[in-house]
């Protein structure tokens, strides 16, 4: 494919931009689900914002348990595409989609049943509990569609096709923008569902996105063509994907558990702090999207270049992506520092206490955002090379060695109180970035091979034959 050839042989900056820009716009649009919810729910009050904030980490934990399979599928797809093994690309896509669907059904069902126990463990206040339970249960129902669509996005990204998901997200976000206020506040004789309406609007639009993505894969017009035989269980591949993806599941689960543990700590300071933390987390999610987009572009390029046995080029891509990400997120951090109160007011305009505390949170953490960009790019390169364990260890360091211990000590055992939680973000961002750079510089990640060596050798032999033919004709 011409697109694959460009990603393997073309200018790196151009290749990064061609992938990153659509991915960033797609991620911005996708985050609009949460931002639209946050905007309209913020009009209901601080208790409702707290209900959404406390529910999100729990939902993310359940999603994370099965997300390692998606990582494995996307990594293998990218490397097989780079090796030009197109039949294996289709097979990997089908098997991964099958595993993701089954996993999402099981985890969504368990999450729905266990939602009350999660909230009781978190010690949620009675004023928040009812709304949080309703929001969480609807979110667990939508897990199936979230899994399927995210897998579709990952597969498309793995083969370098990033525009189709962008168009789908654009359509569903516009629909969500209409459905959110309708479902939350109602219209005419329909009174609206409050916090539950926000979750229901997201469920409807995510379902449409998932069904559209699966339809596109079944038609085979964009690089992957799913057929029924690709959806028949291949236990050899499933075993391989499980062991490849297990560290990714542990990584994301550890991150989600870290967020839940942080929620325990934040909740101990009251509703205002919970709401401030929720607003700050939403802003952080939005502002790091450019770094995430670049990291995803790095992952695709590194995976395809390693599949084509272009190891040095893969290393260069990682460095360039990390530098770009650092600069971009640092610039955004400066703007966030200067405009902190206004940014927080966008989410909760009528609560001065939340605006003050949320702005303080934002100012403390925003100047370290560039270091998050470095982490994202390097961890994506590790995953794309099949070194899921490296990325897992960095995530464990982030949540359990640095951030939570720092947050607990600084907030509970110093005069900083809740400000200690805010400072834990800054210190952690810098420390983990330094560890990631040092680990990357060792170069051991370059030696990992997750696709069959004969696939790479076949590609190299074919290219050598073509060169020979060209030289003879010359």
Automatic annotation (TrEMBL):
The chain crosses the membrane at residues 12-29, 49-71, 92-114, 134-152, 164-187, 193-217, 256-277, 283-302, 314-340, 360-379, 391-409, 421-441. It is a multi-pass membrane protein. GO terms for cellular component: plasma membrane. It comes from the Bacteria. It is found in: Cell inner membrane. One of its GO terms (molecular function) is xenobiotic transmembrane transporter activity. It holds the Pfam family MatE. Keywords: Cell membrane, Membrane, Transmembrane, Transmembrane helix, Transport. PANTHER family: MULTIDRUG RESISTANCE PROTEIN NORM-RELATED, MULTIDRUG RESISTANCE PROTEIN YPNP-RELATED. This is Multidrug resistance protein NorM.
